[in-house]
Amino acid sequence: MTVAILGAGAFGTALAVALSANGPVTLWARDIGWGRDNPRLPGVTLPPTIRITDDLATATGADTLLLALPAQALGGFLADHAPLLDGKRLVSTAKGIDLSHLTGPSVLLSEACPRATIAVLTGPSFAADIARGLPTALTLACADADASRALQHDLSTPVLRLYRTTDVTGAELGGALKNVIAIAAGVAIGAGLGDSARAAIITRGFAEMTRLATHLGARPETLTGLSGLGDLTLTCTSAQSRNFRYGQALGARQPFDATTTVEGAATARAVAALARRLGQDMPIAAMVARLTEGRMTVDDAALHLMTRPLKEE
């Protein structure tokens, strides 16, 4: 079994470092001018068991391809390169919903690569922790139970533990939707609303996540696992989370680094559109969408949430 990571951002690079404990790994990047010290992951020097290349044909020669690409970039990448990926074991690590198609990465992959085995790797994790070898547990979602067991064996390490599920929809939506709620949690802290407000947003946000995911066929228990509640808790409570930091900057009315990928911002707009199409009530997601588009102020957002109708929980 050979493994390649497509995408050398912080998370893709961290996965390469972790999986190199099992054997040689290929890491594909559009630009490899940084040598073995990726500026996206400061303080981590890539071990010699990682082969770095900018030749996509070489990288896609591996049996298993982990696509560590931003959710909004995946569709365009597949439009250009799907023939190189079809027939492989494809594992998406993106946490988002495509704005153009209003679907998760697994649907984009299955439509572009019909002969491939599709899986999703998601759950509570930060790139820096994985690269440092800190214990991390993730969800591996694949509809094919046999393929899932094989991937679990091949991609687990002594400190990176994968837990299987066949509920791809639930795992994927948990990872995408928690980023939206993390922005809202960051807004609460940045605006000085306090930890109690953040706790309320996490709780009601989890209810929104579960409502939409189960409407789309997910199993409720998937949302209470690593890929749902676990990832939500981590992302809403740590400054390592880009989505939380972005929300915090919004709440404090401060600028945010425009070069940093914030998956939850685009996903919020996609979720709001999807919820309208499905007739689902997702007030926190709708609020985040309006905030990120500049169509609502922080003060108005707080008022909007606090004047929601009183009802049973």
TrEMBL record:
It catalyses: sn-glycerol 3-phosphate + NAD(+) = dihydroxyacetone phosphate + NADH + H(+); sn-glycerol 3-phosphate + NADP(+) = dihydroxyacetone phosphate + NADPH + H(+). Substrate binds at residues 95, 242-243. GO terms for cellular component: cytosol. Residues 3-146 form the Glycerol-3-phosphate dehydrogenase NAD-dependent N-terminal domain. It comes from the Bacteria. Keywords: Cytoplasm, Lipid biosynthesis, Lipid metabolism, NAD, NADP, Nucleotide-binding, Oxidoreductase, Phospholipid biosynthesis, Phospholipid metabolism, Signal. NAD(+) binds at residues 7-12, 127, 242. The active site is at residue 178. It is an enzyme of class 1 (oxidoreductase). GO terms for biological process: carbohydrate metabolic process; glycerol-3-phosphate biosynthetic process; glycerol-3-phosphate catabolic process; glycerophospholipid metabolic process; phospholipid biosynthetic process. The keyword Oxidoreductase applies. InterPro entries: 6-PGluconate_DH-like_C_sf, 6PGD_dom2, G3P_DH_NAD-dep, G3P_DH_NAD-dep_C, G3P_DH_NAD-dep_N, NAD(P)-bd_dom_sf. GO terms for molecular function: glycerol-3-phosphate dehydrogenase [NAD(P)+] activity; NAD binding. Residues 167-301 form the Glycerol-3-phosphate dehydrogenase NAD-dependent C-terminal domain. Residues 1-16 form the signal peptide. Pathway: Membrane lipid metabolism; glycerophospholipid metabolism. Pfam families: NAD_Gly3P_dh_C, NAD_Gly3P_dh_N. NADPH binds at residues 11, 30, 95, 127, 242, 262-263. Belongs to the NAD-dependent glycerol-3-phosphate dehydrogenase family. NCBIfam families: PRK00094.1-2, PRK00094.1-4. Catalyzes the reduction of the glycolytic intermediate dihydroxyacetone phosphate (DHAP) to sn-glycerol 3-phosphate (G3P), the key precursor for phospholipid synthesis. This is Glycerol-3-phosphate dehydrogenase [NAD(P)+]. It comes from Paracoccus lichenicola.
